[in-house]
Specification:
Layout (H helix, E strand, L loop, with lengths): L82 E9 L5 E7 L5 H12 L11 E5 L3 E4 L32 E4 L11 E4 L12 E7 L1 H9 L11 E9 L36 H11 L45
Antiparallel strand pairs: 1-2, 1-8, 2-7, 3-4, 4-6, 5-6, 5-7
């Protein structure tokens, strides 16, 4: 009896593509040791009952800890206030950056409370020191195995695992946070941060929150991933806990609008025909010869005349000549 779903199961397939990676849906329900009534062999947690290392011929069973156990059912009451938790993630040994996640206890109170308690460590265990063990760019970044730190372990605050609450919230895009399961009703502590829309997981994994601050840290986590999911450098949750609503970062003012384009240059003027062109020196000499010269009056307070383009040449006035004298009257001749 295997715990993982078959790779041909339609719930594990993306529409029109190859099956999902098997390690996405972690194996949490592997075969366990059958009860031994002979008094020898190994017990259900792999301890040698005979003490000589042989176990009386029986072989230990890996992951015997995964024997079914009932989760502790206690009511979770939401007080109506928004709940925010943070993950301080160190990448490649550098100073950690903070991711703030808003939980959704209004829709999935038990799942949200499980994640909150694993962040605060109030039950004596939690996410602090847990790595992101699987990172596939454009798909997901998976973490939460605080027990074995490799994707094969994990435990919820209610027990080994607990039932799915609701699939009302969907994997709508980047930053959505959901539980990672191997089959229905096996949520424990492993979770993933979606790096893109993963709608084929809507009916399998329970969405319980979303990243509301620190997407630049999520981008850096994605940069440490690889095609097969193996991180290229250490990505560790250095610290975690509960926090208040993040203060929105100041939005930089929009850049000034671009300057309007410069007007086009004026079209070039038509050149004067060569036949009508007059040399500058000849035209100047002709104008100077045709222009009459006005008498110059020398006086101390005289104002020199102002030449204007519309000035009319001054013509000297000529006094009219006196009429000729009348002819002298001659006396008539005598007959």
């Amino acid at each position: 009896m295997g715990g993982c779903l078959s790779s041909n199961d339609p719930i594990r397939r993306r529409p029109g593509s190859k099956p999902l990676p098997r390690e996405l849906l972690m194996p949490v329900a592997l075969p366990v040791a059958p009860p031994d009534t002979s008094g020898g062999g190994f017990d259900v947690v792999g301890r040698d009952r005979t003490g000589d290392g042989s176990g009386g011929g029986a072989q230990p069973v890996r992951h015997a800890r995964l024997v079914e156990e009932k989760s502790v059912e206690w009511p979770v009451v939401w007080d109506g206030k928004p709940v925010y938790v943070y993950l301080d993630v160190s990448i490649g040994g550098r100073a950690p950056g903070r991711i703030v996640i808003r939980l959704r206890p209004d829709v999935v109170p038990r799942t949200a409370e499980n994640f909150r308690l694993l962040c605060t460590g109030e039950r004596g265990f939690g996410f602090k020191g847990t790595p992101f063990h699987r990172i596939e760019p454009t798909l997901w970044a998976q973490s939460g195995d605080w027990e074995f730190k490799n994707g094969t372990g994990g435990r919820s605050v209610y027990g080994l695992h607990f039932k799915d609450e609701s699939h009302k919230l969907k994997h709508t895009g980047r930053g959505v946070v959901s539980m990672v399961v191997s089959r229905p009703d096996t949520s424990n502590s492993q979770f993933m941060i979606a790096l893109d829309k993963t709608e084929w997981l809507d009916d399998l994994q329970v969405v319980f929150g979303e990243v509301v601050d620190g997407m630049e840290v999520v981008d850096a986590i994605e940069g440490a991933g690889s095609a097969d999911g193996t991180p290229t450098m250490s990505v560790i949750i250095a610290d975690c806990g509960q926090t208040e609503k993040p203060v929105p970062k100041p939005v930089p003012p929009p850049p000034p609008p671009p300057a309007p384009p410069a007007p086009p240059p004026p079209p070039p003027t038509a050149a004067m025909p060569a036949a009508a062109a007059v040399p500058q020196s000849t035209a100047t000499a002709a104008q100077a010869a045709a222009a009459p010269t006005a008498p110059t009056v020398a006086s101390a307070g005289a104002v020199p005349p102002v030449a204007t383009a519309s000035a009319v040449p001054v013509v000297a006035a000529v006094a009219p000549s006196a009429p000729p004298p009348p002819p002298a009257l001659r006396p008539p001749r005598a007959a």
